[in-house]
Design goal:
The complex is a heterodimer of chains A (234) and B (256). With 234 residues, chain A is α+β, with helices and mostly antiparallel strands. Chain A has two domains: 10-131, no CATH class; 135-205, OB fold (Dihydrolipoamide Acetyltransferase, E2P). In chain A, 22% of the residues lie in helices and 33% in strands. A five-stranded antiparallel β-sheet of chain A has the order 8-7-6-9-10, with no helix packed on it. Chain A is extended. Chain B has a domain at 1-12 and 127-256. Chain B has five helices and nine strands, in the order E-H-E-E-E-E-H-E-H-E-E-E-H-H. Chain B has helices at 28-38, 105-123, 151-154, 221-241, 245-249, and strands at residues 8-17, 44-55, 62-75, 81-86, 89-95, 128-142, 173-177, 185-193, 203-214. A nine-stranded antiparallel β-sheet of chain B has the order 2-3-4-5-1-6-9-8-7, covered by helices on one side. The longest helix of chain B is centred in the C-terminal third of the chain and has 21 residues, at 221-241. Classes of the chains: A alpha+beta (234), B alpha+beta (256). Chains A and B meet through helix 1, strand 1, strand 3, strand 4 and strand 5 of A and strand 1, strand 5, strand 6, strand 7 and strand 8 of B. Strand 1 (15-17) of chain A pairs parallel with strand 7 (173-177) of chain B.
Amino acid sequence: MLFPVVLQDMDNTAMCNVTVSEDQYFLGAEQLSSVLASLLIDFAVGRTYYRFIERVIVNKFPVGKGWVCYITGLSSYVGNGDTIERAEEELKLAIHTDFQRLERKRLFEMDEEERTKWTQLTSVIDLLDYKMTTPIVTREIGEVSFEKISRPCSIKWVSGQTYVIDPYKVPAELMSCRPGQWVEAIVKRDPITHREIEIESITKIHFRIPQESEVKAFWEGLPKAELESTGWTW
Amino acid sequence: MKFKKPPIVEAWIEFKVSLTDESVAWDESTAKEFMNKHFADFKQQEFFVLTGVKIDPKIGNVLETRRSFERVRAFTEDRDWCVQAGRNLLVFNQIRQREKEWPGYERLRDSAFNALQKYLDFRSLNTLVGVSLHYLDIVAIPKGNDGKIKLEDYFAVYPHLPDGSFGVMSGFQVVMQLPKACESGNMTLSIQSLPAFGPSEDKGRFAMDWHVSSNQEMRDMDSARKWLAEAHSNLKGVFESAFTTQGLNLFEPEGR
């Protein structure tokens, strides 16, 4: 009697080789001539790149009116679609969505089901490679400086660090800034060195630092607090 | 016995050829030329390349990169037929498309031999060293009201656990070699349970891989044809014996 279980990795739960196969067909997936099983070493969703710890087998099957596909060893993720390509895309998106959701959580924030999924995902996807190759995207504020040339030369971030502008690599809008212009930028940084890889976009910020007299006038214009006078007992 | 709904999702015939007569290098451009010349309808081409890198362990520099072209795969527009050609092999695949009727073994065989002849002529090769036939079946079995499947009701071949400490089976994969099933070849059967394809899945699915490969050298095309006919007949026999009557009824046998 068989109890089909949805979440469990059924491929690895009960493996039984009665004898060592003399036939090479079942020894390595690369020897398979099947076009419904293919090897995959990595995949990308947009600009997010995932590498597998070792090559995985993607299995595709026609079911009813469409196709399904799943990865051996990661069988709780299944892609469904009208075509093989659509099913594969759905599978990648399902993995991408869960990975992104769980990667932002600490282990203690996960419930049991999430922990199981995270363990399963990270036993197939190379988490270290992901962390070492996926840029950190930050929102930063800085002031544009011209220094001694007639165009934007650097940005001094509020953190105190200075970014030297390469006109060929920054958004064109940055080159329209005047000296002293404050900008809010989306910055991609190297996950290891934290150096800027790329400025994805900028937004000019318009604000004025008030004069000292204005600050004083503002302060004095604030309503005075009227606190009840009462005796404190400690 | 013929079935209205055979569980086949893919079948292929693979030919291995001897390279003793090889005179022209097999690379991507040759493969592309072969496909374009003989398989114009197989427009979707994929090239498989193996790459090896040798690295100096002291300084981490790449000392040598080796690249070898493995095979070309070309599909028809509907992706229901595929021809694969490597340096010493030719494979012809037939893939089930949705609910289309299965075209049948005879069509696969004829297409495969036709492709083989073109391959041998193009490569100026003469000797076949092996032939194999492979079927991939996906058997869908409806779950009972209790959400369970009794394997013994459908399969004559299935893994069995004794009562007691083993509890229940949630999945399995078994590979069996069947030396007596085909006198002139090696037959292997792999059965495995597949994961549920959706949260409200009302069926359990099982993949059955049937593989028969020749264990004797083929002198010519005729001996390959003869061997394949025998292998197919043997495979058909063991397929029917692998199920109970209730199991075979899933595939809607004709004339019952």
